[in-house]
Structure prediction request, 178 residues.
Amino acid sequence: MGKIRVFRCKVCRDPYIGEKAPSRCPFCGAVSCYFIPAEEWNPSEYVFEISDKSKDNLKAALELELSNTAFYLCAMNIAKIADDEYGYAKFKALKKVENEHAAAILKFLKIEQPQLKPVTCSKNFKKNTQEGWERENRAIKAYNKFAKEATEQQLKLFFKALVEIETDHLELHSENLK
Prediction:
């Protein structure tokens, strides 16, 4: 057994305890390069003025993430009713990650999380997977644009990380659509 350490994710800011940084953040899905030892954490990196354009983009990203959270919650519940263990696990994990992205955005905006608005989904796994693919694709396009428009280095990094994470989700859906 190695020495247990504390790490922090630079995307969602959550701590992680382990011998080494995880390959993926168990909360937001960011890859290991976004982890740093907790003793190197500098909270002042997250204290900066956010431009009006970036605030608008963060609000748009929040809407995407909350809508995706609600969609995956619906798909998760449908899979559970159908006794589809794989679908349940997949959509539950995606729901948790999308909700964590919303929570990270809320930290930048310094606001409370609004109530989730219900979103409908299909009773069919493949149709929900296709809808998930389309949602992730929209998010990737938006976050690429938001990263380019951000003047704040921390937000450029944040949106770049979201593109990487959502691309993983897109690939997962693609595999299930084969």
Observations:
- The mean pLDDT is 96.
- The chain is about 60% helix and 5% strand.
- Helices lie at 52-81, 85-109, 125-149, 153-177.
